[in-house]
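User: Please run a holo structure prediction.
Assistant: Happy to. Please share the sequence and the ligand.
User: Here you go; the ligand is glutamine.
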Amino acid sequence: MKKLLTLGTALILAMSVLAGCSGSNSDEKVYQIATDTTFAPFEFQNKDGDYVGVDIELLAAIAEDQGFKYELQPLGFNAAVAALESNQADGVIAGMSITDDRKLKYDFSAAYYDSGVVMAVSASNDTIKSYEDLRGQKVAVKTGTEGASFAESIKDTYGFELVYFDESPFMYEDVKTGNTVACFEDYPVMGYGITQGNGLKMVTEMEKGSSYGFAVLKGKNAELLEKFDAGLENIKESGKYQEIIDKYISAE
Ligand code: GLN
């Protein structure tokens, strides 16, 4: 009886070792990470069509530091968040603001970049200089964003109407063609866009906004979030984080 037990134990041990081996090869988890399509300097395509930007390089550096694999899904901001909610993505990195509302539904990493919301108008517009000038006008926002929430919060006070877009470039185009007189966008993104000649300008101060974080669904993928945070700390210590920021965002 004792012998049988020992043999059985040995078999189970051998089987679990084998299972462990195959698990570390073919079954290795590849995290699906959703991102925005065009949100420079955080994610955008270079001339070769490759995705580059602060978020893209931070994720790559963190994954390398922590030894995890991932696939990038550039879906658009609202679609990326929807993919997270329907379990089609394990995480989102998309210049996503850590807001109190979102903290009810998602778990966020430590903040990795400070942001805020700002209004922008066409560079050739001389009539819109404040929110008061928006009365009776149409204003462009991007669906599901902090900029849209801010515009929604003041639209009745200032009496303007909102037009929704899924992607930042479409929103800017609409302002330039004059269908809408202004848009609300994240300050670091609008600031970068203006230096890149997007044809818009800022005429008001930045509104205080939330910092960016990497998000997983609440209570899910805790190990991925831990790795992100640990990796973020490591690349801050090594100087890699600052190197990535400096590459895309010029110091003021
Ligand atoms: N930071 C904004 C938000 O989280 C916009 C993000 C984006 O458009 N990619 O709502």
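Confidence is low (pLDDT under 50) at residues 16-23.
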